[in-house]
Structures
1.
Amino acid sequence: MDAPTTTSADNGTSGGGGGWFTPRNTPATTGSTDTGVPDQERDSPHAIPTPAPTAAPSAPAPAASEAATAPSAEPRVPPQRHASTSSSSEPAGSAPAEEASPDAVLIRRAMAEITPVADKVTSYFYALLFVRYPDLRSLFPAAMDTQRDRLLRALLTAAEHIDNTDVLVHYLQNLGRGHRKYGTRPEHYPAVGECLIGALSKYAAGVWNEEMEAAWIRAYTTISQVMIDAAAADELRAPPWWYAEVVTHDLRTPDVAVITVRPDQPYPFLAGQYTSVETPWWPRIWRHYSFASAPRSDGLLSFHVKAVPAGWVSNALVHRARPGDIIRLGPPAGSMTVDHTTDSGLLCVGGGTGIAPIKAMVEDVAEHGERRSVEVFYGARTDHDLYDIDTMLRLQQSHPWLSVRAIIDEQAHQQLPDAVRAFGPWNEYDAYLSGPPGMIRSGVDVLRSIGVPSERIRHDSVEELVAAWS
Ligand SMILES: Cc1cc2nc3c(=O)[nH]c(=O)nc-3n(C[C@H](O)[C@H](O)[C@H](O)COP(=O)(O)OP(=O)(O)OC[C@H]3O[C@@H](n4cnc5c(N)ncnc54)[C@H](O)[C@@H]3O)c2cc1C
Ligand code: HEM
């Protein structure tokens, strides 16, 4: 692969002071203010050149189905080793030291220092960013709430796995495309990089040195360039977001709504994928929701949303949204899609609203006219929570290859994954899991324990990158 191609990486990416964002020494601990940011840290750093997209993509706009998955510009990642940890069977950080590149070793050393104080690192990072670059504050939600650590967590995880280029590049391209909806621009990346180094050097002070700083700068340069290039390529073929009008709102239980929306322009996606949604009531707060139907000829999209206690977006969608309201949608994402190049059976496990993408995938198989076995396990706490069982049973009646089993915790006295195990063997099936994170984790454990290879188990989560190594 090519050498790092961040435009300004040519300026030198070492920690010697010549990087494309100015590396800083450990901030002094005196003179701090209520933000926790020392006064001297408030000063803008030296002039920071702005990275530019490296590849001017010239490919014509792809067909709808390609647009949802096609990689963008050729990724440029330094020729680092492909560690064997790219398989999903090895936990993060468990790669034998001799397989990691020197930069990865340095990065992991810093990670070991900061992991126990991750909350403080996050607070300090945002304080630095908003004090030094107040203009960037308006890109972020007014309330930096429970999910505010996602940016930093993703950055650190990406840096930690800088050797695993295949998984990393795919993830970062998606992330870069998704960042267009926040209004992120190439010139914002140096600011974030600089504040990352500021926060790391403070909280990993015990091990921090020039060599380590240089390793982080190289990793950040690589990460941001992949995101910038993917965003630039995406600009040529898709808007940064879509407006969509709510056309129907069906409250199926006191806390689950099925919502159908009409996007303002064609929205290409694949069954099994998800998007991000922003409501008019909580600007700049985006949450993920899975498409509950395969792409339809009328272009409408539907979602199943469960209001969680004190949840910002889910409560707005379930209890406030009405036909005529306009929401915003980000680009499609997620790899929990049907592989139509094989005819293996599909084992689909959906808990709660996790049934939504599974219903979409069943419709997708039906539309492709395939006769492959699809076994759906639909889990819920009580039978009242099986809000979409009628639809699933109707699908079962129409398609002899489909079997739907409802598993109710209360009656079965067993968790959904255990019920799945009881109906095995599943080692000839491609497995898809969708639902609460706990269900996905135990589902993956159960499936692996009964011999389903990891590469045949698919699921999505916000922590897609973390999940790839879990
Ligand atoms: C890939 C993906 C697809 C998703 N698809 C769907 C979908 O199709 N339908 C759907 O309803 N949701 C889906 N989600 C979950 C959704 O993105 C939000 O996390 C959820 O709606 C809560 O958002 P919120 O803004 O209402 O709550 P937040 O404001 O983020 O959270 C408020 C409080 O609720 C807690 N909380 C968050 N989620 C839950 C939960 N599930 N149960 C109990 N407490 C919780 C938080 O820890 C916090 O304390 C999906 C998530 C991912 C990652
Ligand atoms: C290499 C660098 C970066 C990484 C790895 C990264 C990663 C992330 C991740 C994982 C999220 C969570 C939501 C999502 O998945 O979209 C996020 C949110 C966000 N990022 Fe980034 N990001 C980076 C750079 C930037 C830059 C340069 C900006 C612009 C200032 C930015 C602005 C935002 C905003 C506004 C949000 C939404 C915040 C929220 O929902 O609380 N990011 N980022």
Note: The chain has three domains: 7-235, 242-329, 345-468.
2.
Amino acid sequence: MTAPDWFVLSFGAGLLALVVFLRFYHRRRYGTVRPEPVVILTYHKVQNRPELGGTWLTVGAFRRQMEFIRSSGLPVLHLTDYLDTLGRKGDAGRGVVLTFDDGYESVYTGACPVLRELGLPATVFLVTGYMGRSNDWDQPLARGAFRHLSWTQAREMAVGGLVRFESHGVTHRDLTALDDAELERELRESRAAITAELGRAPEAFSYPFGRFDARLMAALRETGYTYGIAVTSRPGWSRRTPMAVARTGMYLTDGVGALAVRLGLRSPGRYWAEDLNNRMINRFTLLSASVQKGRRSRHG
Ligand SMILES: [Zn+2]
């Protein structure tokens, strides 16, 4: 064998060993995972402007995913309509739920036209203290900040009921780190603002950075929310409590192939890898929560 042959052989063996290790690690930690009958997808930005962080899709990639969902025949449900069926007896059947976190303006410019054209319902989680303003918690390396929806844009999107709005807090901070008074303010003020501006009280709350704990779940109930929405859940949580509903994040690197696996439509043997990928990216967003904490405390 020549030197390049040895190189290819040992590279391949190393890669195989890594996959075997990850498979073993994932099964030990999370057991056997399979897609929920109804898969809740999370998107952030839908834009053609490149960005260092991976929480965006181009408008074309988003359209291909939506067209794939449409052609799959899976019903696309409103988030709270689906969650309302969970407590009841009987099988909800299979389906897909579309959600957008943070309420970026690109949901209005990039995603909404596609949703309207294909008639797909979606839920947008708003950060009420940032309406019409620029983002300041995303990747610090990104040049130029991203704008959030204005109330006028949100009202326009709400017409007809295809897009619904729920709460993602007031300031997008890690709520598990706040004291009781600040925590209550985040839950209560965001709820009041959405009710006043859009005429419909939010029922669901998406946890900033996916961070939640027992105190936060109790505070949500007290403030009148019915559902707490996570990113990934601890194993079994989302089945046990409507305050820890798990979702699947869709990011820059996820194409139609990954989507098909996550929806349980293709290659069930690959599902664990998609699940691990989702959990790893969630860990990364926790890192950006601590970056934010550092920046905000420096700026006071
Ligand atoms: Zn968020």
Note: The pocket of zinc ion is lined by residues 101-102, 168, 172, 208 (CB under 6 Å).
